[in-house]
Structure formats: structure tokens, C-alpha cells
Write a structure and sequence with these properties.
Length: about 110
């Protein structure tokens, strides 16, 4: 297993954290499932058993948590920034979801 990962939420210029807001807005059971995956990541890293992550492109990655997807980027050291979350409803991620995650990623990496 890999080292622990520190998780940070992307913050807008207005001080909002969209991924945290998304998770808090989910029904209790669904939010618990997403939070359980994030907890495993913090404790055991991206190689944790029960955690499904995949690379979208270059530095953009996706965490799968039930019907929910969370885009993230790894920055300095073992720090993960959660960029955007959405409910999966189709085989491929919708272009608007990917574009938003990529914009936030570019902002973080600058």
C-alpha cells in the first residue's frame, strides 16, 4: 500500500468548497459512502483496497464512489486536491464536468 494522502478541497475565489458542498448535499447513505472512500485514501493512499481511481488525462484523476465521481489532482507531496464531484449517469463523463475539473486543476497547478 502507498503512503497516506492529505486531502484538501478546491476553494473558489469566494471561499466556497464545491466538492464539500456536493457531499454535504447528498442523502446521508450516499454521503457516507463517499466519505468512507475519502477516509481510506487518507489512511492508506491511492492504492488502498476498496478504492477505485483512474487517470483521466495527464494529471487529472477520478475517484469512484458508488454512483458518484470526484475529480482530483495530486500536488506537492502526498496532497490531493478534490476539484469537482458529480453523479455518474452515463458511460463517459460529460464534457462540462471534465471541462470544469480541468479549469480548476489548471488554477491549482499554476
Amino acid at each position: 500500500m502507498e503512503d497516506r494522502v492529505r486531502i484538501r478541497y478546491y476553494m473558489t475565489t469566494r471561499g466556497e468548497r464545491p466538492v464539500e458542498k456536493y457531499i454535504l448535499g447528498l442523502p446521508r447513505r450516499e454521503a457516507a459512502a463517499v466519505e468512507a472512500v475519502l477516509s481510506l485514501l487518507m489512511k492508506h493512499g491511492v492504492g488502498a483496497s476498496g478504492v477505485s481511481c483512474r487517470q483521466i488525462d495527464a494529471k487529472l484523476w477520478e475517484i469512484k464512489a458508488g454512483a458518484h465521481r470526484v475529480f482530483y489532482v495530486i500536488v506537492t507531496g502526498p496532497e490531493m486536491v478534490l476539484l469537482h464531484a458529480y453523479r455518474k449517469q452515463a458511460q463517459k463523463a460529460p464534457r462540462k464536468e471534465l471541462d470544469l475539473a480541468r479549469r480548476r486543476m489548471k488554477e491549482i497547478l499554476q
